[in-house]
Design goal:
alpha/beta, 13 strands, three-stranded antiparallel sheet, homodimer
Chain lengths: 391, 391
């Protein structure tokens, strides 16, 4: 019988972190040790806060630190991962951040079990094979249409057949200016490329403002409009979906459990559901969402903006859904995100991506990067040291 | 022009914290200073994690610490609270715990503005008067029906006309045993008292198991069945609501924004929506939910299990909704929760509760309790001290 002997957190950071909407500047790696075995995972978002959720003193029975539900637990079967997940959910019911912390641990447990059994995670999930994915390049909108044209031209000449353009001035100025931006991106990509637009929740709950942009998006033959609204504004999503039949909606990166993602599909009527394994509770709940989406003709897409460990984890849940082709791929991450691993999921000559066939997530950690980018955290409560960064 | 000069966090704890489902064992008070003015608020749940979300180094532009959106902000008008709330939402989009931290700050800002204007918060919210509320006593189910009978008899003889019984063995054993429990509570309370049952998410998403208990709940004339399912299981709530017309469902304490509470009403069809101001983002979003509920004949109820500062805050959003009578009241909190404030919202001889007419939240902090129950937290990142408990 194996049990979880240790969980270690590695908070890594670029020397300088900017306000860019670029999630590759910081990472929180997690290693789980069980006997002589070790698995690796990654939590999305605020490392200090996620570490605090692991070590925080108990507030009451339904607000315990994540550590209390994880350390010492048996880990022999896939069912053990589900069992510990339910324990975290119950015992940390009132600790909102707990699921972000747990997400990295859960991913590490899949990696661990895969290594022990000599199987890639996607096979543990029940898939017979891992289909190739088509990575899209993520770009920010330029300050005007000409600037956007230049940016998308570059992605296109780099060989990308799918490009997502996001954030920038969209939704904050004239409708016509937005329309010019969409058309510039389409012209730069050519008529056959897949074009996606991400507006980063800019309209919050305002369906009318979003709707004004739909004709422009349709004219530019945009595949999806991503995050027009706040993550939980299911009603607004549903209302816009009804009024924009040719442009489908995408969202879901903010879902911190499978139920919220399913609500975005059921009530928000998105056509694409985008899941970040580092937030939703790991690979298990993400696979549940992939199954749910597939049954409803909704396309599953990963959300990933950090390392290739996180990328491998995020592709596993829909590895075998061969019709769900498109995938997010961090095209130009900061050095940190590339340096974390010794091997990478590189794009092949046909512009496609394959998941490794090797055990677990198939990604090796570069131990020297853990030193190079190390952020030292120390948390003391009443003089007792609850956390100190390893190494 | 006033601006937010300082935000201070006071982590307080009983000497011993147990696994009881009793949220009064620990508190996180927040004081906001603007010029010579000071307001107080309280965050629900894990103090260390919520402090970390305030000071955590930025991960990227949409994952900034709460402090970055709050400190130095102008605070002259109620509209300033909304403006800062939107800023936190945007700049901490990927920091899940941020809203718990912000909740306490937001409450403190209402207290501060009320004190500056010499008005109680409920008047700032637009209410002409604050109606009396009928507090219910919260009790845990006993290990069997006889035990439960004794517990509810005690609450009844203490003068409570409404009693909520919760958790314990319900949902985990025989349906008949649960039925005996419900009937024992009803017998102890008498035919006229209001009886509520809280099962603490025990059935997760399992509608059938919940449905088996509905006849027993109906026979015991239970006003509401609280949290049969996970906080975001809107579908399961909706399905059960359809099959239990005489017992209405209650939930919402886990909502960390107004949209989630509204989804529980719209899709989950609850008859009672229970909001914790210390989690949902403070008094503003709670008021929005109260308005939404009132328009849909859903009854708003506070969720409160800590101090009388939190209690006052949680009653403000529905102070003027006179038909929404019932309120949660921490009947037997740990000493800490009572000692935090010098004045209290006590139950009058008719068994009712009135909100203070004094400025802000109308509750004074007991500074000596801040010392007595003080938990000392120190957070260091790369040798730099990001947080140290005051005092």
């Amino acid at each position: 019988m194996l049990k979880i002997d240790a969980v270690d957190f590695y908070y890594l950071s670029m020397p300088e972190v900017t306000t860019d909407a670029d999630g590759s500047q910081v990472a929180l790696l997690v290693s789980v040790t069980a006997g002589t075995h070790r698995g690796w995972g990654e939590c999305e978002a605020s490392p200090l806060t996620s570490i605090a959720a692991f070590v925080s003193p108990m507030s009451h029975g339904a607000c315990r630190p994540v550590a209390d539900s994880v350390l010492g637990q048996r880990i022999d079967e896939i069912a053990d991962i589900d069992r510990v997940a339910a324990l975290v959910e119950r015992q940390s019911m009132d600790l909102l951040q707990a699921v972000h912390t747990w997400s990295g641990i859960e991913i590490a447990l899949w990696d661990l079990l895969g290594k022990i059994r000599g199987e890639p995670v996607w096979r543990l999930l029940g898939y017979q094979r891992a289909g190739k994915k088509l990575p899209y390049a993520s770009k920010l909108f330029g300050h005007d249409a000409d600037d956007t044209f230049r940016r998308v031209t570059r992605a296109s000449s780099d060989g990308f057949r799918a490009v997502k353009v996001g954030w920038g001035p969209i939704g904050q100025g004239r409708v016509e200016a937005d329309q010019e931006q969409f058309m510039a991106a389409r012209e730069a990509l050519g008529p056959d490329g897949q074009l996606m637009v991400d507006v980063g929740q800019v309209w919050r709950e305002d369906v009318s403002s979003a709707q004004l942009r739909v004709p422009g998006l349709e004219a530019a033959k945009v595949t999806w409009l991503e995050e027009p609204f706040l993550a939980n504004a299911f009603d607004a999503y549903g209302a816009l979906a009804q009024r924009s039949s040719r442009v489908r909606l995408a969202g879901g990166e903010g879902a911190h459990n499978a139920l919220l993602a399913e609500s975005l599909i059921e009530f928000g009527r998105v056509g694409f559901i985008q899941i970040d394994c580092g937030r939703i509770g790991g690979i298990g709940p993400a696979k549940r969402v992939a199954d749910y989406a597939a049954q409803r003709s909704v396309t599953y897409v990963n959300h990933t903006f950090t390392s290739h460990l996180a990328l491998s984890a995020s592709l596993q849940p829909y590895a075998g859904l061969v019709d769900h082709r498109i995938c997010e791929y961090p095209v130009a991450p900061r050095a940190l995100a590339r340096d974390i691993t010794t091997n990478h999921l590189d794009i092949d000559r046909s512009g496609e991506l394959s998941l490794p066939d090797s055990p677990g997530l198939g990604i090796e950690i570069n131990e020297s990067a853990l030193q190079q980018y190390r952020v030292d955290v120390e948390i003391l409560v009443n003089g007792r040291r609850l956390f100190k960064s390893p190494g």
